[in-house]
Amino acid sequence: MAGNYISKTAFLKFEQCRKAFFFYKNHYYLRDKPSVDKQLTFKRGHDIGALAQQLFPGGINVVETDSNKGRAIEYTKELIEKRTPVIYEATLVYSGVMVMVDILVLTDEGYFAYEVKSSVKISEIYIKDACLQYYVVKNTLPDLKDFFIVTINDAYVFDGILDIKNLFKRRSIIKDALRNYGYIQTRLTEANEVIEQNVIPNVDIGKHCFSPYECDFFGTCWKGVSSEESVFTLGKVNKDHVFNWYNSGIKNISDIPVTNDLSKSLKIQIESTKSKQAYFDKPGIKKILSKIKKPVAAMDMEIWGQPVPEIIGTKPFQKVPFLYTLVSEEGEHAFFFDHEPDDRRSFAESLIEQTKNFESLLVYDKSLENMVIKELAELYSDLHADLKTVASKMIDISDIIHEQLFFHYQFKGNYSLKAVSLAILNDDPFKDEQITSGLEAMNAFVTFRLLDNIIEKQQMKDDLIDYCLADSRATFLITEKFKELTN
Ligand code: SF4
Asked: Which of 153, 147, 112 is nearest to 129 (CA)?
């Protein structure tokens, strides 16, 4: 798409790292394969962009008009010459830079441009992105009057009929664009110099590889760096320390000198890696496990949080629970709610009923479950006391890991349930699952609701239940393992 132009994506890569920019322009094939979560986030952005077009209906979409495929720049020019009132994905070029403006609107006063983002907040990178677009649009259409970033309005409440105007909010970035005009110009000159020199810029790995986004060329630059015992696999440590070690020649954890100023957490990680032995604080783990009262079950929940709410009374990104599972010695059970219509009350009542005979509920990181229960309790005041009882039964097994009462040298800085299960149980709880992350589960539920085919619908529901059960099962099993270790 970018051809010989500097696209918006290429410019943002340049802002992060010259080398990433050079790779993007000249060695695009080196890019890492995007993760499923990244692809889903991208798809969400695309869907929201399409929905926001309804703010200015009746426009012409430059890239989706079949007869004009591959000639977006010329076609945009023609539409502008014809004084087309609304253009979607208007593709403009100035001085070797190409941008695609989500919505370009012509009024009696002049042009107004809109960049749509599928989030509620405006980040620094969004502003930079919009400033670059302003620079190109202003130079091609001097009549540009204002430039807006359009985001999701988190105060919007769905009342049964989608109100596009209220779902979105907009903020002018014209002041930022004018202030940054010279900066953009300078940076573009520098980016062009990198292209002209045609040599891979000499940039070493650093904190910039992670910010503002994890770089797409991670696999290329970090190849050979992240070995099994690399200092980069340390958890709970400031990245500055890690890069200081790395740059001074300390590449492996075992090479770090164990001095008094090291934190207890680091000492544990270094010792465990050196000795290839798991560390555990028996009394500390016992203290957490002593809170468990029988009968006990492990629990997990899945939630649905869409930018466009579909349940009356909910807001954008509001977390709506749709599934929970319980795993105990007696068996495995799943409770699924399709929200056709709003099932939140049934979810709350079922949760109270199904957990009433358990004295303890084991969860791995209870923040989500706590938030769900709190919101349900606020919504249904008559269930408040019972829901509070459910919350009080929860015991967060991840505390053992996060408080570093247990450490395994195979964690490699990853404390997710999957990583912990792999190290402790020697088994990946999600290996047979079609769904492998919370974001995938959320997306699968959206697909489930859209499906008409009963067989496909059932399959999707089964996949979701299997994923949620795998989580509860793993929590149950690692707790058993901790009991075994401390006995
Ligand atoms: S991985 Fe790091 S050094 Fe390599 S291109 Fe990306 S940001 Fe630059």
From this structure: 147
Examine the domain organization and report whether 109 and 171 are in the same domain: yes
Gap between the Cα atoms of 186 and 168, Å rounded? 33
Could you give the CA distance from residue 222 to residue 32 in angstroms, rounded to a whole number?
A: 11
- 209 inside domain: no
pLDDT cut 90: percent of the chain above it:
87
Distances (CA, A) of 155 to 113, 150, 203, 315: 24, 14, 43, 7
E-only strand ranges, 156-240: 168-172
Structural domain boundaries enclosing 434? 278-487
Residue 112 belongs to a domain with what CATH number?
A: 3.90.320
DSSP state of 57: T
- 42 Cα to the center of ligand 1, angstroms: 21
Average pLDDT score, the chain: 94
Q: Parallel, antiparallel, or unpaired for β 279-280 and 296-304?
A: unpaired
CB of 110 closer than 8 Å to CB of 145: yes
Q: What distance in angstroms lies between residue 26's CA and the mean position of ligand 1's atoms?
A: 14
Predicted confidence at residue 226, as pLDDT, reads 66
CA of 216 to the centre of ligand 1 (A): 8
93 lines ligand 1 (CB under 6 A): no
- DSSP label at 393? T
Instruction: Tell me whether residue 219 is in a domain.
Output: no
Is 215 inside a domain boundary? no
What are the tens digits of pLDDT across the range 428-466?
Answer: 888 999 998 998 999 999 999 999 999 999 999 999 999
Same domain, 250 and 325: no
Shortest-distance atom of ligand 1 to CA 20: 5
The reply to whether 102 and 74 lie within a common domain is yes
Tally of structural domains, the chain: 3
Quote the CA–CA distance of 270 and 253 in Å, as a whole number. 6
Q: Are residues 141 and 128 in the same domain?
A: yes
Please tell me if the CB atom of residue 20 comes closer than 6 angstroms to any atom of ligand 1: yes
Residue 111 maps to a domain: yes
Q: Closest ligand 1 atom to the C-alpha of 218?
A: 1
Same domain as 105, residue 58: yes
Q: Do 20 and 166 belong together in one domain?
A: yes
Indicate yes or no: pTM above 0.85: yes
**Residue 369 and residue 427 in one domain:** yes
Best mutation site among 218, 239, 243, 247 for ligand 1 pocket (most ligand atoms within 8 Å of CB): 218
Is 31 near ligand 1, meaning CB less than 6 Å away?
no
Residues 33 and 95 in one domain: yes
User: Does ligand 1 have an atom closer than 6 angstroms to the CB of 481?
Assistant: no
User: Which of 12, 14, 19 has the most ligand 1 atoms within 8 A of CB, as the residue to mutate?
Assistant: 19
> What's the average model confidence in pLDDT over 377-386?
97
Average pLDDT, integer, range 264-283: 93
- The reply to whether ligand 1 has any atom less than 6 angstroms from the CB of 104 is no
